[in-house]
Every structure is written in C-alpha cells, then in structure tokens.
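ligand=DQA
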Amino acid sequence: MAKVLVLNGPNLNLLGTREPDVYGSVTLDQINGSLTDLAKELGVTLDFFQSNQEGQLIDRIHQAMNEVDGILFNPGAFTHYSIALRDALSAVKIPCVEVHLSNIHSREEFRKVSVLAPVCVGQISGFGVLSYMLGLRAVAENIKK
Ligand code: DQA
C-alpha cells in the first residue's frame, strides 16, 4: 500500500488554542484522526511528524527517501523563507502537496510568498481542516499517476 508522510511545521502543535479566529479550534490530533479515516477510504497508509525545528523536518524528509510515495506538508512559517526545506524536497524528489489552513494570499504581504510551492505538485490554502483533506486526496491521486 502506498505511504504518505503527513508533515507539520512550527506552531502547528498548538492548533486548537492558537489564534482560533485564524486557524480554527480543531487540534492537530483531530486533523490527523480525520486524515486517518480518509486514508482508509483512499487506500493509503500515513506516517505523521510535527516539529518546530527546521533541521528535524529536513531530517524527516531525508529519511522518507525510498520509503514514502508522497508528502502532505503544512510547513507553517517556514513556507515563507526556508530554502533549506525547499532544497530537501527537491533532493528527495518525493511528490509533495503544500497545505495551509488559512488563505496565505489574503493575509500579510510576507505570507503571500511560498518558497516551497515551486517544488511542490501544488498548494491548497484557505479551507481550514478541509485543506488537509483535499491535500491528501491530491497526494493520493498523484501517486496513482
Ligand atoms: C499556516 C500559514 C503560515 O503563514 C503560518 O505561519 C502558519 C500556518 C496555515 O496553515 O495557514 O503557521 O501554514
């Protein structure tokens, strides 16, 4: 069965209590639970990893090489400036879908730029928890191709 790595970057461990007006009140555990249900429907298995540290995310992406068929990634604030994460995704060549709860294009100027998007299959932004669900569907479809 195809395997998808669900990656979450900094501050996403605080979902549920963090700025609920922007990010909603659902916790990361609840999102991961919903993704697990959807994964069964889609016939894929999931691995989960969240870190507030760039290096740990890079190490996890390297580890995924030859192990994982797709990545679903909410890189948090690293989206906007981590060339190191972009290089890691380019290096392993695992198809990645970037997701955001909020619409990063309707917020501050600095959030409108994603340095990761050009090395991802695509980006889904602004649908709250649904962004993750749509993102997993996109990863699964991409694996089938
Ligand atoms: C986010 C958007 C980022 O700009 C922000 O730094 C986050 C969350 C989102 O899911 O909307 O941490 O990735």
